[in-house]
Amino acid sequence: MKRKALSVLFLVPCLALFLSAQQNPPQITLVPVAGPVYMLQGGGGNIGVVADDTGLIMIDAMFERVAGAIREAVKSLPGGDRVRVLVNTHWHSDHTDGNKALGPGAVIIAHENVRALLAKDQTLMGGQTKALPANALPDVTFSDRLAAYAGGETIRLVHFPHAHTDGDIVVFLDGLKVVHMGDMFFNGMFPFLDVANGGDIDSWVRQLDIILDSLPGDSMIIPGHGPLAGVAELKAFRGMLADSADLVRKQMKAGKTLDEIKAAGVPESLSPWANGFMKAPQWLELVYRSLEKAAGR
Ligand SMILES: [Zn+2]
To answer: What is the set of domains in the chain, with CATH numbers?
Structure first.
């Protein structure tokens, strides 16, 4: 019973992303963000692009099967005929499967924990992800921070430990007040939380506070999923994470079981967040698993 619940829990978000890319012809939309920076939406986790005459810097890669549509969407940008640098914000396949098509010929950069996960077959809550071939694995890894340069901009890559996973990096283009958050930010919806690979709800909130403290108020923020956002939407997401953690923690302290917590659901203030691919009971279970693991540490 427990096993079945877990696999359903995993399949809900992944299948939603997988099927949307699989069944419909991929509709990849190019959204101008600022200067040479664009966002691509529609075939997996949102991609950020920095256009440069010498080739693109691409942040995340969606799925291999939408690589043709991605290339088509960026081909008219300066340097749009080639990806020079590919950044992976974290290991999940809706951000890295496209490495197989877009990675060969590019320098792939990721956090060191991400390369370790991508180099081996992974089982996550009942789902399987195959190891990437050698030419799709990160060529350059780092542990804390790294800078890259393109399109006249400095591009800072910074690791924020124990958030959505334990390999999340955030990409800052300070000169343009643009940030790509990867899956540390799902705009307007409950997120997935990868507890098995170091994700932690309370640490996630603390990391978002560090980021929010550093961002100018008029920043443009590319989320891992959902539409382009500003600081207000990121603050709302941070508040939802903190409220969810408090809601579940209180009930755990009162001796409630996971089933009881799921059955009680979320208050009206949190219910609009259930309109994405992650429904309230699944989200409450992820929060519960995170708090349970942290308590056992
Ligand atoms: Zn993810």
So the answer is: 2-242 (3.60.15.10)
